[in-house]
Records
---
Amino acid sequence: MKKCMMFLAAFVCVLMLGACTAVQVSGELMLNADGSGTRKIVGRIAKQDHQDGYGSAYYYFKQHGEELAASLTQIYGAEVEGAGEWLNITVDDSGSDWETVTLSFDFSSFEEYTQRLRALAYNETFAESYADPQITVENGQVTGYTEPTAVMTAIFKSLQGSVMADEALYDERCMKDGEALNDGSADGQLEEYGVELIKPENGSGFDLVADGKELVSLTAVDGMFTYAAAGNTEEEEHETSLVLDYRFDGDLKNGGSEKDGDLLMGAGSASENPVFTEGIDGQAVLFDGASYLASPNKTYSYKEMTISFYYRMDTYTETDTGANMVLVPAGLGALGSGVIDVEFIREADVNGTMLLGKMNSSNWQTQDKLYSEGYLMEKHLSEWHCYTLVYQNEYGEDGAIEDAFVYMYIDGKLAARSRLSAAAGLTYSLGSYDDGSAGDPNGGFNVGGYFENGLVKRGCTGALDNLLIFDGALSEEEVNTLCYTVKVDKEYDPDVVDTVEPEPTPEPTAQPEEKDDPTSTPEPTKAQEPGTDDKTETKDEDGGSNTAIIVIIVLGVVIIAGVAVAVAMKKGGKTR
């Protein structure tokens, strides 16, 4: 079935008429200190398959352009009292790739703004996660604005339910040129999750203009769009702290400063409870390739970040992509900007399994990657080692980020370093929490694998200990004092380059000798044909030599007899 029905999928960068990943929700707000302004919410309907995973959602609609705009206006008129007096809906169907839907309204006070915005989330079920935006005005200027990402999620999910219930608007078979793009096999997913009919415009996140000043593009952090006017607050110098601290000494508790950070067994795991084993420092959690852990349902994002853990790979797990995931953003959070995953990877065109740190740019299809080149896990199976990744910014005199780098340490020694070319300047995140609008949430990030389409995928087989997350970039000295705290038996040597030897060719198996059958005549081999000089002595060749000797003797006897007869005849002729 073509990708017309966009159900919940790990690599579908989507928003179900407003649901799913927060960083992909698009909003526009012009806000003035006197309470007036204009709000827009923009979505696009895909007309054809696109490289980011969107299919032809356009064909789920029976109406388009002005006709669709009129129907959407009727829906809001029926659901939201007085919406016809202030809500404007436009639909532009002129593009070859997208049909664009825009909801907009003006307001004259902050109270009116929040009332109208909340009214658009008219479905009570979806409105449960809705929370009003907060506006701060000081000295006649807008100095702060916060809006939960759940606001636009609730708005578009409300609209989605109404569209799918209207037979005049919604075509479940998704007909295109007389062909049903949905052959019925996806009906169960449609009923459970709905159709992602509109993709809110991608890339900018949330654009805000306060008091007619320069436009500011906001990115969601911890499920919140946040604006602070330049110069409004003086930031104190940040002191790096250990925010997530998992020692796995018989439990999954977080000993770091981040609240509500305890892990739990991930949905779909083969094991109901974690399995603990002897670790590098006390106990460790053991992964079997079919079970994993999940963090609480929140986003963990920091301006800089250090990730460190001890790991003992017992065996490499064969997976569809070659990856064994240590840390991976949960669900659709993997598509967010600035999210990081850490994995052991065996790529098709590379010999050996390496450690990989990977970070999304603002577009999840473009990533910065750092490999442990020269360090292969095949050479270190059943060994404990400490792996640390440091994501660090470089700042100018004005405090702006000028550059960014990632450093990889193994057992406290620098193994690799790379400049972030695509993701520089972004907030570093372990995952952009999916608020559950696209299905059951399963944490902000997962550990040891993840769950998708009813299966635990890309799991690890080994033991994990002392998983630490710092909200800042540690120096090499700090890596050795805070992360690599327990020396391993076989420390990493940067001067040693691991290689994977080709598998040896097995020696041919010797065949048992066959005894001659005295009743049979051996067939000559090529080496035994007349005219050859093969002098290898075999039983067959000995038999051939004996036969030749007998033939020669017989011929000799015949010749001698012939000569004797001839002489006798000659003598007889002389006596006549």
---
Amino acid sequence: MITVVGRKLVIPEKDSQIGTTYDNNSEVRHIRLNRITAGGVDLANLRFKLDLEYEDAILDTCLLDAEMQENHILLTWSIPAACVSHKGTVWIAVRAYDENGTIKWATNPGAVYVGHTIFDGEAYKGHLAEFEQLEERITQKAETLDANESKRQEAEEQRKANEERRVNNEAEWQRQAETAIAKANTTLEKATEKAEEATQAAATATVKAEAAEASSEAANQSANTARQAANTAATRATEAERSATAASRSESTASQAASTATAKAEAAEASSTAANQSANTASHAADTATTRATEAERSATAANQSANTASQAAATATNKATEAERSAEEANQIAQGLGGFNGKASSVSAVDEQGLLGGADGTSNVQELLDALAQKVALELVSNTKLVEILSEYIATSSINNTGLVTEEGFVADARQMNPNVAGSLAAKVKKNTDDIVTANSNLASKITVMTYSKANIPIVAGDDFFANIPVDIETSAYRWVFPILSDITGDNSTKINISTCIWQNGQVHIKGNNQATGTANISLSGIVIAIK
């Protein structure tokens, strides 16, 4: 390593040969100098160059990379072919200046040399090494610009896609508006249909009134039929009574025959022959009489049953007659309500229970009530703007989607999306993410290491920039991210310190700032480093 002591370059023997005339970018030299000069000037903000002088007063300049350390500045010289194109002694000197040229600084020349080799390669073309390096950096910048242009084109494509999406959304909004208007028209048509149904209901009421009149006539006919049934029952009762009388007469005839037989039996006792014949005759006559008596008894029983049946038929006929009379009364009541009915609804009287024409329970007719009802339908239902607005705000079932990706106006998500127990629903996904976050947070403490750092007594001249490199003992290979945080600045004029950079670099917290005070600042820095595995 080449060291700058004051303005003198101290070049070790092993670093004195910078290459051969064949070399290209095969040697690197490091030059270290104090950050603060003997006069107290901080060189950290200067731009560093390396001037070269070959034999025959040939001059060249090379760029140097600068790394700011706490107390030193480390310069790196990557040696290209242009710097070793002339063999022999090469005088080098470090030169530095700020961007405005207000501060300039340089070292005394120091000698290095370029060795000779058998194959020297192409001859030197006279290009300055500094220009070659600048050209390389311009090429890198051009590549960066090309990459940025690619990103700009991607952004433009995204903008066009967003514009197309906006136009499509406007078209969808127009479609939804047309759908709402169509729904309103459909509602109006349905209301008109309801009005027509009300008119049909009035016609049906008229038909029912005519049917009521027909029912009245049928009731009168039923009453006449009931009277005829009653007369028939009375006739049958008379016939049953006659049958009972005839049965009684047969019983008397049988008794007389039995008496005659007894008399003949007594007469037969006088003569055995006549008695046997008379006995046989009497026996037959007695059997006949017995048989006829049994038949007479059966006829009497049948007559009694017929009489009971006739009584029941008479009772039934009486009930039917009563029901017919009631039906006739109801028919008369209906007929009274339809008194003067001429086939028109206006001739049918009615009670206005709802107060459609004024007070409740007022007397009116069917036609007036229908006219009032139709007017209310037209004014309060068909022409009801508020109703149309409310109906247009209803959400159609086709606009209800069972998905958590509903983002368009006029569409809603199915309620199952809010149920975390439904697999694949939005609520289930949110619950899973929440559980994952809780699990990750529970493991977070074992993956984070926090360490403190501090540095005291940093002198800064008024208006100067400063650099601070603070080492922190962290094995960075075990961590994926390392974040330094500057938490406190104390000391003289500490409130006037403007911090522009606080980064983690090469195992150190690298802090850059500026003293904006009018006087010298002497500050201390402290903070923490967060390392995450």
---
Amino acid sequence: MITLYLFPKIFPKTPFLSLFLVFLISLQASFLSYYIEFFVFYRFALKKKLYICTIITNYNNFIMGIKMNFKSQLCAAILTLGCSCLSANAMVANDAAKENKAQHYQPSAENLESRKQFQDDKFGIFLHWGLYSMLATGEWTMTNKDLNYKEYAKLAGGFYPSKFDAAKWVAAIKASGAKYICFTTRHHEGFSMFKTKYSDYNIVDATPFRRDIVKELADECHKQGIALHLYYSHIDWYREDAVWGRTGRGTGRPNPKGNWKSYYQFMNNQLTELLTNYGKVRCIWFDGWWDQDQNPNFDWQLPEQYALIHRLQPGCLIVNNHHSSPFEGEDVQAFERDLPGENKAGLSGQDISRLPLETCETMNGMWGYKITDQDYKSTKTLVHYLVNAAGKNANLLMNIGPQPDGELPAVALERLAEMGEWMKTYGETIYGTRGGIVAPHDWGVTTQKGNRLFVHILNLKDKSLFLPLGNKKVKKAFDFVSKKPVKVQKCEGGVLLNLGEVPTEMDKVVEIAL
């Protein structure tokens, strides 16, 4: 069996030669050869963890070898050959399984195209809406106040958002310059905002409204040319089969261990519905992985779930807001309340990957509707956030929490309209761009399309601006809006833009032709 040393290298290429060598060596008759063969093979078997049938066969050969006549040795050789075939096949199968497991996710052509479109779009609107809007205290009220899950579910009986109009929502969002909508199909509270046959706890079966919100919104997105992204929570504070994490522990559910197999199947069933019944979905946006961060051995079985999504819609992107570096099978890296590379909110300290990037942020302070939170960010702040995101090669997903009556808050609509006006002028410097060759600075950022470099000056207290372009040649520079030339002075390490006066615009953009 010394020949088995060569199996990992020669067996896949020359199986017949390998097995023939095994057969010949098995005919050895001397005690010394059996002695050497047994101990060499025994060490090999321990190292490679070969199967017991081969070990037993060779052990028997070792004990009986010196007593065997040629006929007996021939029989033993044939037996050894058979067992070696089994072991070899097992080795090859085991290696193939390991190789299969190690294979990396390969996105489809449709998926790669979706990634490009996603990066080109740059701006989307997040909509957090569910039963929690009725309490008007934010989307985490159920766990923050330890509300009993059976009592909380009674909210559904009074949920009737009579003013909901999907066409108006989508039109207002489209007018803002946003290119996609991400809607919470099911948040941590466990209530489904779509018709599902896997739970009665949904907008159609549990409320007097009896209309499929996701269906109406999806239809309008497809009609008005807005890409549809669907948020889906990995955790559930309502379902009894959902395994407890660090949140939702006080909602009165009876079994902390839940029933993972049942809950996992439920999630996959709902994901199948979402990716089958609502037309093209460009992205599934997961949230809640972090709920088990105190249980590092917990297996969310993400690879199988990701494979299901990519099988149902190959072009569908997967985002997971797990606050970590991307996992295998994901298509976009998410950042929460911070731009890539920043960690002011304490949720985004992860390394920046080469995947498309997206940062989500609230328009006021909460994700879900909160009646006392009227601290909306100014239009200037929102525009700067969008520009800074683009300069860091990321998209901005700006959140709005719809009211319980089905309308978007008036202030949010104002901000959407004002951003839309800005985008009418400056959209060309955002859409279809990537982060520019000049890294972000305190004064602003750059975006770029080919040889067109857009210098976004957001905070400059001087009349001139140095750009570290190295040996890059500047053909011309001009104000993006007025098209007036901007003087360029070549200097060591780059160029100096002479602006003539200190910029006072919300975002002064200078275009440079390289």
---
Amino acid sequence: MSRPTLLRPGLQARLALVFLAMTTTLLVGTLGIFYAQTSHVFRQQLREQLKALAGTAALMVDANEHTRVRSESDPTYQRFHALFRRMREANPSIGYIYTMRQDPSGTWHYLIDSAKPGDPAHSAFDEAYTGTGTDSMDRALARPAADRKFSTDAFGTWLSGFAPIKDQTGSTVAIVGVDMNAAEVLQEERRLLEIALAILVAGLAFALAISVWVARILTKPISQLVEGTRKVSAGDLTIRVPAARKDELGDLARSFNAMIGAIETHREELKESERMTQELATARKIQQAMLPAEAPSDEAVNIDFYLETSTEVGGDYFDFLPLDKNQLALVIGDVTGHGVPAALLMAVIKSCLHTQVLTDFRVTNVMSIANNILHQSSFERRFMTFFYSILDTETGRLTYANAGHPYPFHYRSEHRTVEMLEMASYPLGVRPTLRVKEQEVTMEPGDVLVFYSDGIIEAQNGQGQEFGFERMEQLILQHGHLSAEALKTKLLKTWQQHVYEGTRPLDYQAIKSDRADDDITIVVVKYAPARKVLEV
């Protein structure tokens, strides 16, 4: 067991640091807000005072006399200069008072300045203003205004306020500017900052003491839990930790003790689950091996297929069985339900089918034998929809019978139409005997058969709309001229877009179990005896 060090502090030290950091953050934030608000109030008061002083000075300036001033030697200039100096002496916080006007080009010029000629801060009559930031001056043409920020120069830190000088008609002929020394405000802000820092230091010292005390209280039961966890990890399931506390830590200790008692049970359940998972994986491999791995290599037909189970194993079944010369059995079925029972019945039917076609592969005979086998084997009264057909690859004649399976689609290339091979009958296993009447249809070169399971049709999108027969039929009508592989890919892609609409790729498995909770199978058979080039 490693011991706490300066580089790796223990839980108690870390908790103390966390509490201290939280308290520090709270103190700094509170004091920061207090300082900012107080500073804002001080500065806002200074701005209001500046606007009031500028407004008072503007009222004391006669606009007509001010307009007649032409130079610093003008008696009117001297009178206003003396007025400004008296105002400055009456309010020591005022640095300078002056008037300004704006020429047609927008440039501001000094007119009358309270500073004496020869003073470094004196601005000569009609001297252009070269400083930055004229927003307050521009706003003062209409009403009193003040700078929002302090400005600092060689003579100190200032805040300026301005007010309009208006004639009898209400037109602004100039503005009065008042520069106030902001040293007092800055000094007051520094004093507030010192007070805030003193409170922060005292608060941190108190927080440190509280943090250490709280950390000690919390870490004792946690240390007991840590020790118990170490013993459990070593294989000791007899360990129990004290659980006398009535707070959350006591609840945690009781939960820990209950967890230890359940670990052994969960361990056995996990072993059983792993065994079942392995067995299901093996069953999936066996079932996949029972289904066709590739389409038959008959030059007269172009076949492609797709099957996906909703669980590890499923009840959908399809097959291609070469019979006599130029004859190929096309089979598709769907056992009710999912999982292992459905897969076992599917295996029974496959075994029966492969055995029966060796002796008598006639449609009615195969359907009858398959029904008898399924009826005798299904102890839970499971049924199976089943479509069995024989295609003569030389003549294109398809002989078939259907036991409750969704009707296959027949695309006729010459007329570009889609028909369904309709035939009503009970599914296999419903009754002890099954009577079906075989039917025939002739396929012309380029015709397509599309077999499918109901999992395709009944799959829903996010709005609860099924994929449906009509959508399937329209897709086959539009793309029936394609090869079997291309048509299968188009059908499957459109189906996936419908089911997974509005989802992300990582959601597919969860969405599929909700919207398409059945096995899905597609088999596309294109009759092409002339070996014509297929459009992809």
